[in-house]
Amino acid sequence: MTALERTLPRAAYLDPEIFGLERERIFTREWVCVGRAESVAAPGEYVVLEVAGESVLLVRGHDAVLRAFYNVCRHRGCELVLTGADAPAVPESAGSSGTFATGIRCPYHSWTYSLDGSLRSAPFLEEGEGFTRADLPLHSVDVDAWGGFVFVRLATDGQAESLLEQLGEGTRRLERYPWTELRAARRIVYDVAANWKVILENYNECYHCAGVHPELCAIVPAFKHRGGAELDWEVGIPQASGTWTFTKTGTSSRSPFRGLSEDERVRHKSELFYPNLLISASADHVAAFTLWPRGAERTTVACDFLFHEEECAKPAFDPSDAVEFWDIVNRQDWTICEGVQRGTRSRVFETGFYAPMESWSLDIRRYIRSRLGTRV
Questions:
Q1: Any alpha helices (H) in the chain, and if so which ranges?
Q2: Contact, 263 vs 174, CB < 8 A?
Q3: Is the pTM of this model over 0.85?
Q4: Segment 255-286, tens digit of pLDDT
Q5: What angle do CA 279, 368, 48 make, to 5 degrees?
């Protein structure tokens, strides 16, 4: 019998100090997905997001270029957009949170910046010794995009990978989906009382599916066969005869995406892009999850439901069949993840184990240890 591999140790799921290291060595230094480009589609539109404890301003310039800046004025450090102590960490809807009419004006002393981050004006200050506008642009944040998803990177240390290098082979497996033509028709934001790695480990295996997801297994029986030990994620997961998408009936009046392979028209594909983007692709829609770790035992999960723009434009378009089905599955996952989190607090828990059919979760252990070293 094959020996069971151990999970990360107890502290990796509970220790605030380890969570702080993850923020610094992963969520500060790597590309983090912050949503869809369409949320800041028009010039002047912006959204404010919290990334690794930092307030980040994502804005579309008048030149149509998407840029990101720390939400901090160069004068006295005031937030350029006041977030408030109880502001949501991620917008509840997929739309932008506002529009800059002419520029980015600090609410404190009215220093005003152009949408490219350059300082445009500072009241009652003249250029000269000790003050030059060109020397005081906003602190910029790296921004890039893939498939309509926007990623930011707070710090590079001069050794960072490109976005495509970080995303890796998963983009090839999803290359036939019309990513840039998809639009977010609905967003649900969940507050999950679990460590972000517990959620990734759960996503990366289907050993739990038979016991946790009866509705899902009714349309995808392969998820419960031998605990999901024989799933082929390269070609996709076959669905029950006569079904081809993730709804209660396994069908939909929506058309499958054009350009998919024969397998992709009737199979489901999933990808985990470290550190925080999870994609579940059906033939007619995509559920895209972004994870926003808030502490060692709390994670905000934003789930965007993406459909083809042509379907969204139809008068009778209604995404409810997919959204309601996914909401059932999601809540089942969050309930079990929270149960795992509570269990790790027990004095008897030192480490868990990965069964052979959970081998994909071993990659999470490798990923974390490659960043945190001997601490885990």
A1: 11-14, 16-22, 163-167, 170-173, 196-203, 209-212, 214-219, 309-312, 320-344, 362-372
A2: no
A3: yes
A4: 999 999 999 999 999 999 999 999 999 999 99
A5: 55
